[in-house]
Design a protein that fits this description.
Blueprint (H helix, E strand, L loop, with lengths): L2 H8 L11 E5 L2 E6 L2 E6 L3 E5 L13 H11 L6 E3 L2 H25 L10 H20 L9 H4 L2 H14 L6 H7 L10 H10 L5 H23 L10
Parallel strand pairs: 4-5
Antiparallel strand pairs: 1-4, 2-3
């Protein structure tokens, strides 16, 4: 998360020039076989929302092209897409963020499958410490203060249940972050735990556990990239 803010800062600093964004949360199974080549491996759902220019707008004015795109995508039976209000989609995004802020970095650091995180007493303590910070940050976000039942929805016990449920359902899977680490690629840690750290700072919460996890992943990412760089063929030239 935080990609729109980054795009606005780098590409569209002038609010008058910004496009109308649409965000989504997808549960379809998809994997990449090559650059710009994807395989649809499992059916799921797609939740979509047009993002208002200002989150506090009661009746946002969406551009016609955005509404047309939303209508077109939601009419596709294969995608099983549903349109949501921006605030409702934000909660779905944050729920998914909370789960993958646990599963992705921990499996990447431990080099294990998702299910291996379960049934480990020491790992359970780590998960609860991370979730304590995550829950506190989410419940303090200003954009969610007017939403009913936020404190209950993002309670640490409920979030822990979701983590366990997803880890169990995807027990045999390797997280995308683990796969990126193994391939020597850059991970999305800055947009997961890094996002939580930034939002925590905005509301006066120091996320020391998430800060530590973020930098542990970045260190492992860098170490693996260095290993891969040593495997690159180097042409030896005779300069004599």
């Amino acid at each position: 998360m935080g990609i729109i803010e980054e795009v606005n800062e780098r590409v569209f600093p002038d609010p008058a020039q910004r496009p109308q964004y649409m965000l989504g949360v997808i549960s379809h199974g998809v994997y990449s076989t090559a650059p710009y080549s994807l395989v649809h491996s499992g059916f799921g759902t797609l939740a979509l929302a047009i993002v208002p220019q200002k989150i506090e707008e009661v009746k946002p004015n969406f551009v016609p092209s955005a509404l047309y795109l939303l209508r077109t995508v939601t009419r596709s039976p294969v995608l099983a897409a549903v349109g949501f209000a921006a605030t409702d989609l934000l909660q779905l995004q944050i729920e998914k963020l909370a789960v993958y802020a646990i599963i992705n970095p921990l499996t990447a650091l431990m080099d294990c499958r998702n299910g291996d995180l379960l049934g480990q007493p020491s790992m359970s303590r780590v998960i609860r410490l991370l979730l304590a910070e995550i829950s506190l940050v989410i419940k303090s976000l200003p954009e969610l203060q007017s939403v009913p039942n936020v404190k209950m929805r993002f309670d640490i016990t409920r979030l822990e249940g979701q983590v366990i449920d997803i880890a169990a359902k995807t027990a045999a899977n390797r997280s995308s972050m683990l796969q990126d680490i193994r391939r020597g690629k850059k991970t999305e840690i800055d947009y997961i735990n890094g996002y939580l750290v930034r939002r925590g700072e905005e509301v006066g919460i120091q996320c020391v556990m998430n800060f530590m996890i973020k930098h542990m992943v970045k260190t492992k990412e860098r170490m693996e990239r260095e290993k891969h760089s040593h495997l690159l063929p180097v042409e030896q030239r005779n300069t004599g």
